[in-house]
Amino acid sequence: MDKENPKVSVIICAYTMERLRDIHEAVDSVLAQTFKPYEVIVAVDHNKELFQRLKDSLPEQVKFVLNEGANGLSETRNVGIRASTGEITAFIDDDAVAEGDWLENLAKQFHDPKVVAVGGRAIPIWPSGRRPLWFAEELDWIVGCTYKGLPLNGNEIRNVPGCNMAFSKQAFEVAGLFGKNFGRVGDSGVGEEADFCLRLKYKLPDALILYEPRAVIYHKVPPWRLALKYMVKRSFDEGVYKSKLKNLSLSVPQNQLSTESSYLRYLLFTAIPERLRCFWKEGSLLQVGAIVIGIAAVGMGYLMGSLLIKEDIRGIY
Q1: pLDDT tens by residue, 173-198
Q2: 76 with 43: CB under 8 angstroms?
Q3: What b/e sequence results for 240-261 when a residue is b if at least 16 CB atoms lie within 10 Å of its CB, and e otherwise?
Q4: Which of 109, 105, 47 shows the shortest CA–CA distance to 72?
Q5: CB contact set of 18 (below 8 Å; sequence gap of 6+)
Q6: Is the pLDDT reported for residue 5 higher than 60?
Q7: What is the pLDDT of residues 83-130, one digit of tens each?
Q8: Are 93 and 144 in contact (CB under 8 A)?
Q9: Closest CA to 69 of 60, 57, 78
Q10: Which of 87, 202, 286, 303 is most buried, by CB atoms within 10 Å?
Q11: Backbone φ and ψ of 101, nearest 5°
């Protein structure tokens, strides 16, 4: 790999015609980078109409691949990875826009040969132009963005965020591709990045997975993701995923599964008390309520996921 000018493949996964304009904006932001991508790949999940529309309307230098295998984001990413030829593979969501130096800031972290993955910062773009009063910064993961209280060890991170991440070619050679036990299908499902990074760290214990806050994208938040019903569902799904992660990642040291405990302690002993001390501030108590509901929904999801896994094990034996 040329440390100064590595070849970076950028993959954008898409699945719905509703985001046609967003996809164009995402591609335009990638093509306008200060550090030019070696190739840009749009991977489309089981939507031939969208695939053809994008081929007809996007610049010629963009490559297109169609996922006709397993439904969902994990396999769509894998189809893009198989088609890529770069030394580094970066991902940005189809409803996000990158800062001009996004790719440069991601790529330069790979100058250190021990670095196998880098995640950047995702800033929400709210439908109204401003954050809803009740929506605490600690809950930004619910809308696919970087959140306050993110557990870090220096600049090391347990797993990268799916909307803004990059991997060395070695990462996929060692750990394989994204697993189909996790991952988003349509608007449901989570966890494929954590599963992959845990497998990667197990295979390469001394490798580095870094957080680079200067690699910034802006992630659009649709109005329906601000409904309480969605927040509860997304939190519940997170709990189910955490139970699967703990039970399916049997070869992963338990200290690698401590990120969730660290974040929970932060919520209970820092985020909530800070707001209660300033309860007169606008939105403080609403945010406490949202955090508590989120914690409860994650807990219920974790319990349900654990019960389902136990039933599956009984069925096997």
Answers
A1: 999 999 876 656 656 556 789 889 99
A2: yes
A3: bbbbbbbebbeebeeebbebbe
A4: 47
A5: none
A6: yes
A7: 999 999 999 999 999 999 999 999 999 999 999 999 999 999 999 999
A8: yes
A9: 78
A10: 87
A11: -105, 20
